[in-house]
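Standup notes, protein team

Yesterday: finished cleaning the Litoribrevibacter euphylliae set.
Today: glutathione synthase structure.
Blockers: none.

Input for glutathione synthase:
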Amino acid sequence: MTNFQNARIPQQVIEDICEWTIMHGVAFRQTDNSARHCPFSIAPVAIEKMTFDHLKKVTPVITQLISNISEDHDFLQASLSAVAKSDPFFGRLMELHQQVHGVAENRIPSIRKPLLIMRTDFMDDRRQGAKIIEFNGIAAGMAPFGQRATELHRYIQDQWPEIYQHLLENKASVPSENQGLRQLAIGIATAARKVREDFKEPGKPIFLMVVQKNEDNVYDQHILESELRTIGITTVRRTFDELSTQLSTGENSRLILKGVGGVDVVYLRAGYQYSDYWAPELDDLICCQTLSQTRMFIEQHHVAMNATISQQLATSKTMQMLLTIMPPEQFERWGLDLDEAQLVKSVLADMKPINADTIHWFDEEAVKEEWVLKNQGEGGGHCIFGEDITEKLKQLSPDEYGAWALMERLYPHEREIPTIAVRESHQTQIDDLVSEIGLFTVFYLGQPVTEFDGYAGYLIRSKPASENEGGIHSGKGILDSLVLVDSL
């Protein structure tokens, strides 16, 4: 029996739990090829069952909407032209999209099969309820870590029950099932097998993960690859640089990878920033052009792909803002009925485009602490808060406005009792922990391909309320999991 007092956990227990995380791949790679565990909480966060059920209901509808928007190429070109002029990387994506889906006589045919692996991130606001923070349609990873965090808390509950119970918010709560790893693998495998069947080829389907060179967030990726191999999928990894010389076209627009053969699924864990398309060995003037053309080359083949260029555009911050502004009746264009549109609207927080009128309103009328300024960047470090927003808006020229948007700031419920966060084997008591909830979905050719109608598990990232950046990898976030309660 552990002597547990004043929320201080014996170091031997901390070391045991940290060893569990390393053993199960919940880790980041170090430069010397060793591993350090991901930061994590000792006990899960509580959420009202009704709220979580609502999110599981609405998120596949959102994915269906985004899936249909991503194939509405005229709408993407018309609605995102301003941001393309304001953000160089976004402009490059739009150029690629125009080459593939633009004017008929000029376009390069695109026959890729869209596989939308998406993570929709929410915060449960104290006043308004759960609202969307952002869509993640490219490099939407960490479903394996989400499932592992649930398994980690189950281990702590079994191995150190008195510690777990002491830190549990509500003793009547029930752990929420999380099959993020399994369902993501099932969705990918379903798409891979369908492409393989299209070519009537024998053998195991081939899954290609496009990765960043020397990336440290690799174990989450390897856990997914291991699960895919368990269910009969062959996995390979390449960077864009490597693919630029290893891809070719086979019969019937088959995508061929040198030394491997026909590829059935391409999953991008890279491609959301300019540096992913930069290779020091190539001339600076041509490298980004060459490697981004490699991505477009993939789109010209009969292969299941996430993320397509159009999926990346459709999950942008600007598209999120446009959906927030437009009336629900307009969603009928993409196959949603009014009830489904209202369901999506129920989780969209207020957003405003940046223009002269918005800037004047923000300076003269807005409560500045109630807003956050966002650009199109993925991952942490792309949000500006409070008075810093005023300074940033002053620095922007009108031709930069399109890359930015104001979003109503969300203030989620703080955990009712202090908890323990563990980072680099050191424990810290946190009194004001708040959580971000990411729900995964997988659709292929516009249809759900998981055992739960498209829903594919969740990822919980918690952080102190005083911290703005909550990423596990790039911020002050820690891995967490959910327990369900009738009411908070």
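Follow-up from PR in the comments: Residues 262 and 387 are 53 Å apart (CA to CA).
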